[in-house]
Amino acid sequence: RITHPNVLRTHDFGELDGIHYISMEYVRGVTLRYLLDQSQRLPLAAGLRLGKQLCLGLSAAHVQGVLHRDIKPDNLILDPAGHAKLMDFGIARPISRTGLGLTQEGWLVGTPQYMAPEQLQGAAVDARADLYATGVLLFESFTGRLPFTGVTPVEVAYQHLQQAPPAPRSIWSEIPPTLEAILLRLLAKRPE
């Protein structure tokens, strides 16, 4: 149902001889993860362009009532012209679904480095959890590092739940103050 230039189009999904499949639009390009691994962080103009495209694609998903739940650099592909497409809706679910943020009782889904506090707690999640993850992705894109790191996923989760993120300015002193304020607001512990 999601048709937007910044979302990788899914054509069909199903099962054939017991094997589940998804057919999607083909995009020749690289993931944001690949770019960050090569360059550490994005230049300001490139990061702003990418952030805008991610937010437009995510908005299109949310308008259709879809919560992505796994926003991260690995799930954003860029074509040679620099057009970004959000992909991998494998753990997405309807926003309107009531209940907790668990897929199955006792199981959390997502990538801990990018999960919102309420998602890590197994609480009810909505579109704001995707915005938190977008904040983590953009923090990493502009500063070259994640706001929360640890040896184990439990350490990372604890930091998401209990610690304030470092000021982006402490990592990249030239960050525009407005951009820093946006990143810190996206990384607020309370969804409201």
Key terms:
192 residues; alpha+beta; two-stranded antiparallel ribbon; 6 helices
Name the shape in a single word: globular
* Estimated share of beta-strand residues: 5-15%
Q: Please give the alpha-carbon distance between the first and last residues.
A: 28 Å
Biggest pleated-sheet summary: 3 strands, antiparallel
Number of separate helices: 6
State Rg.
Answer: 17 Å
**Main sheet: strand order:** 3-5-6
How would you state the average pLDDT, rounded? 88
**Beta strand count:** 7
pLDDT < 50 stretches? 98-107
Q: Spell the H/E element sequence.
A: EEEHHEEEEHHHH
| Class by SSE composition | alpha+beta
Helix fraction by DSSP (H/I, runs of at least 4): 25-40%
Structure description:
By secondary structure, the chain is of the alpha+beta class. Helix content is 36%, strand content 13%. It contains six helices and seven strands. The chain has helices at 32-39, 44-63, 117-120, 127-143, 153-162, 177-186, and strands at residues 10-16, 19-24, 30-31, 66-67, 76-78, 84-86, 93-94. The strands form three sheets. It has a three-stranded antiparallel beta sheet with strand order 3-5-6. Strand 1 (10-16) and strand 2 (19-24) form a beta hairpin. Helix 2 (44-63) runs antiparallel to helix 4 and helix 4 crosses helix 6. The longest helix has 20 residues, at 44-63. The chain is globular and about 50 Å long. The two termini are 28 Å apart. Residues 98-107 have low confidence and may be disordered.
